[in-house]
Fold this protein.
Amino acid sequence: MSSKLLDHPAPVIDLEAASSVARQVFGLEGSLEALVAERDCNFALRAPDGQRYVLKFSHVDEDPGVLDLQNQALLHLQRHAPGVPAPRLVPTVEGQPTHLYQMPGGGQCRVRLVTWLKGRIYNAVSHSPALRRSLGAMTARLDAGLRGFAHGHGVQNLKWRMEQAGEALDLLPYLAVKQQRALAEKVLLDFRDRLAPELAALRGQIIHNDASDCNVLVAEDDPDRVCGIIDFGDMTHSALINGLAVACAYAMLDCADPLEAAAQVVGGYHAVTPVQEQELALLPDLIATRLAVSVCISSWRHSRHPDNDYILISQAPAWAVLKLLDQLPRGFAHFHLRRACALEPVPGAEAVVDWLAAHQGRFASVLDCDLPMARKQVLDLEAGRADLPVGTEAICAAIDQHMREQDLEVLVGRYLEDRAVYTTAAFVSEFNPAERRTVHIGMDLFQSAGSGIHAPLDGVVVGCKDNAGDKDYGPTIILRHEVDDGRLCFYTLYGHLSRDSVQGLEAGRPVHRGERFAAMGEPHENGNWPPHVHFQVMTDLLGESDTFAGVAEAGKIETWRSIVPDPNLILNIPEEAFSDTPAPIDELLERRRRLLGASLSLSYARPLNIVRGRGCYLYDAGGRAYIDAYNNVAHVGHCHPRVAAAIAEQAARLNTNTRYLHDTILRYAERLAGLFPDPLSVCFFVCTGSEANELALRLARTATGRRGVLVLEGAYHGHTSLLVDVSSYKFDGPGGAGRRDFVGMLPAPDLYRGLYRDPQSAGAQYAAHMDVALDDLRAAGFEPAAFIAESMPSAGGVYPLPGGFLEAAYGKARVAGALCIADEVQVGFGRLGTHLWGFEEQGVVPDIVTLGKPIGNGHPLAAVITTPAIATAFANGMEYFNTFGGNPVSCAAGMAVLDVLEEEDLMARARTTGDWLKERLEAVCDGHPHIGDVRGKGLFRGLDVVADIGSREPSAQRAGALVEHLCHAGILAGTDGVHHNVVKFRPPMVFGKTEGERLIAALATGLENLAG
Ligand SMILES: Cc1ncc(COP(=O)(O)O)c(C=O)c1O
């Protein structure tokens, strides 16, 4: 298609006259050949030296200023951008750019000579993406070459000048087909009313304005490279972007995917000269404008040359592109061209994604159940992998059966999954009829029909409709969400709903976070799909309000991703759910049995394969989140970033041992010791709680010169030989060898189950028992070196010590010459909420304190804190060396834990949450026939499960069933106590009320089962 108007007929010159002009005016001999041209009369001239030229004869009435504009432009390029492959102007023998020629038959015309550019015309070759990029790059280089060029005739009156496109409205009557006329009118009116004023604000310069498919040359030896541009006849001053619009318009013709073609041209241009965002915003409509002008002008020309149907032949591809641009989802072309320039496709989409990411985990669940915690599986619908039966009914039955067999609450369909299921005509691409929309851009959540759909955050209904039709959405609702004080806005879509979900619902109706505003539909109403909701997030509605594409073409997916970001930012399904290869539990079990020794126990009937932790959540390999209400080691929260970073940093710098001076170990020791009352001020660092207790006993024995140890019944202090000997939980338990003679044992001061049931008389009773224990020891020939007790026994049954117990016990022990050891391995570091250390509650100051579990938030660190006197006595000549204890990495971990404890005020949190939890636990257990006692402090709580309240007979079986039930519901707890009947809760200190509510809800159903 030509871009020229036949305002003046071309002069008629024969070969002979032309060759004499070449000789006389330009001093060139050679062979000439007439060229086909529309406005000028052109000849190809080959000089004897092989050089080739084009001799151009123009109508004398052609504005000399316009010819001069072209000449000067070519000269400018020659001088300032010699690399731009434009023809060079050859002056006359008199040094003039143009010659006024008296034609032999009378009349005049103007003659110019330019060099011939080698290459094949663009429209005669096939177009690769690389060639289109090269076209864009060439256009940019040409524009850059003309940047500083000015000319009095720059703003020439030209119908092809984009700024004058509104004038083409006058040519509409020449368009014969009504729909085409309407389309061109729409485009041109939009240009006149909306684009033209905006165009005026953009950067402008003189541009070539005609990089059409017949003016662009492709290298003969490289089909991917544009090697020249000719025909400067439409040059004009214009907005810079218009030159690119023209290049795109022609490059889009006759393409399978015109938008992609334009994107390639734009990408090539942008790589040379960045296209501005305002320019890109207008570009798709400028392309349409150019094509509309083109069809108007060619129809008008055809009216003047009705016999020349050739003029109209080239209109068909232009109409095709115009139609396509009109039908594309609104804004998509703009977004796609932005992407071609490496900009975020939807302006502001990244800010929405960032906001969603920053709030991930804080949205209400879209389903009735909590999605991260739900028992779920990803349904593989990927083309070539999905193994589904044929027919909706059969698929529904298969899904149903699978969910039942696997005990699943939800099946999940992936975002960005390329699927084979989109078979109907509705899934043909709008961009390219040969392509299908197959990539799923929402997420599917399968449950039974009628399951509730809840708003993840406050929103307003934008639109709702029954998008009826086989494999369509059925009833659909779109919500609009404004967040960040109205600075950001996005949309969520819910498809395949029940019909009553949309009945009576109107645009503008507010929907509140957590509100159940819809339900999943049956296949007969939801587009013939198994019951599920298609959930999707959109940063732009592309002009829609009550429906929106749910699948997209693979070729444009990067643009789509900006329009429809990952819905999981809201749904928050743990990433592990999407892993292709979750480790099969049975295989892990088998290997573990083979490799790790059978004495190592594993929790829960269906053991968990935990692969990640955060805060008080643990995630299994299948992507299920569990609330960790059990692991006090991750004191400040699993994988606390502060602690992880401290460990990583120090590990990358230095990790040695205590044989060298190191500031961190001293700073940590100072800080830790500073948390204890005087005279506790000397730290020994070790790696485990067992090591700490072992060392504590050594300290006591060395300092006292005695060997006897006084312990509490049911206590557990560690796994070494000595500690098993002093832990009745072990020596009196299965596989235990009974109490050794150097151990004196006091009855468990457990007010519910132990000997001392009455707090009033307990004092006198345990004083008497201390005497018995001492007598036992002495009878066996031992004097007591130490009395060791947890400040709140854990393994013994999670019970707080009666008031004054430690004071009395310590008093007696000390009178007998023993040192007092407080085992704070479980309850230290503020777990009880009111004091950092459990012994403080009892108003005592031990001689030795042992710390473990929470001290390093999971890093193997433990410590013994004692008095200078004991430490000195221990230095009896035997060296104390611990390869790992107190290494810089461990100390960095310990320090970070203290930082977080302080900064997040976790002890206070343990108190508030703990008090609240106590009330809720008491309420839910109140009157239950199998919960004998609810006890504990802060975030250390136990439920004593009994066979019957009256007899207080412990029921390990019921406690175990309760713990299993909780685990099934996604809450991790455990049992403890000498009878294994105490359900124990000791979550990371970041455990909050949200988690607490879930625990209570799960407990309530568990207790119901237990009672029933
Ligand atoms: C009270 C108490 N002390 C000591 C230990 C031993 O600690 P570790 O397992 O780190 O050796 C434990 C472990 O459970 C414990 O509960």
